[in-house]
Amino acid sequence: NWTMENFIETEIKRIRKLVGETAEVIGAVSGGVDSTVAAKLMTEAIGDRFHAIYVDNGVMRKNETVTVKKTLDEGLGINLTVVDAGDIFLSKLKGITDPEKKRKIIGNTFIDVFEDVASKIKTKDGSDIEFLLQGTLYPDVIESISFKGPSQTIKTHHNVGGLSENMKLKLIEPLRELFKDEVRHLGEILNIPEDLVWRHPFPGPGIAIRVLGEVTPEQVKIAREADYIFIEEIKKAGLYRQISQAFAALLPVKSVGVMGDQRTYEQVIALRAIETTDFMTADWFVFEAKFLKKVASRIVNEVDGVARVTYDITSKPPATVEWE
Ligand code: XMP
After folding, report:
1. Spatial distance between the Cα atoms of 229 and 298, rounded to a whole number of angstroms
2. Does residue 99 have its Cβ closer than 6 Å to ligand 1?
3. Which of 53, 132, 262, 284 would you call most buried, defined as having the most Cβ atoms within 10 angstroms of its Cβ?
4. Pocket test for ligand 1, best of 104, 134, 147, 155 (most atoms within 8 A of CB)
5. What ipTM was reported for this prediction?
6. The whole model's pTM is what?
């Protein structure tokens, strides 16, 4: 009978047989549940012959890199390489305001950085890495098939599908028959911390598509701080699991405010929180007024450069989840 415990056992055996006694595997981890579960499963199967690579692209959330290091490396015993590539990404994003261009730049830079790091990884017997691990889920498989239709140019989601062909690696996708809730269950059995197992999805291009207009280190910092406060309050209120995804976006407009007897002229934060089952359609989440009041006042008081906070009350469709 099919249980998650059986799945793990079978999958580990399958991976061992496929990889053999000496070959080695690399894979990107993002700090999200899919890549972490895939990486943990691989580590259970072949130990340090699996090499996880985390690329800090400069547009991750607050404390993300430190947390990933702690959880994956120290906590889960995954053989992890952390690459600080923030400057490279941010310099390539300079002057770019078009959302699709941002996505392409981040996707391509990611591939360049990943390949560069991967080529420097030393295997035990000096041979080349043979396999690439990807945490692809069943819905990703379906989506990538249906997205090949001619009219599907809605958004080119950050996708590293080309990596294996470019690098001549064989692909391993142990989660490709699973749905998200099954992956979360798998994560729990594999002792992945609850915080990570239930984490909201985070787009590949990260905060770059939540800073509307040009992405600069200063703008990223504002968006990042506001986002952190919003999520912190959501967790404190016990609402995190009820909400499918929540974040702060920084708008490229200035608005007049008042602080003490001073007139201010600073930017606007838009908060977004949605409920959905499949992310194809979504409803905005109904917060209590006093919750929104608290978040707005914290953001304006604690984040330099913000004079006003708004809450996005648009469903998908017609609006998308992200602002770009
Ligand atoms: P939209 O904005 O299209 O988002 O309604 C639906 C879901 O997809 C995520 N998203 C992305 N994920 N790369 C990703 O990896 C992207 O470029 C991207 N754009 C949107 C979004 O966060 C939401 O979960």
Report:
1. 7
2. no
3. 132
4. 155
5. 0.99
6. 0.93
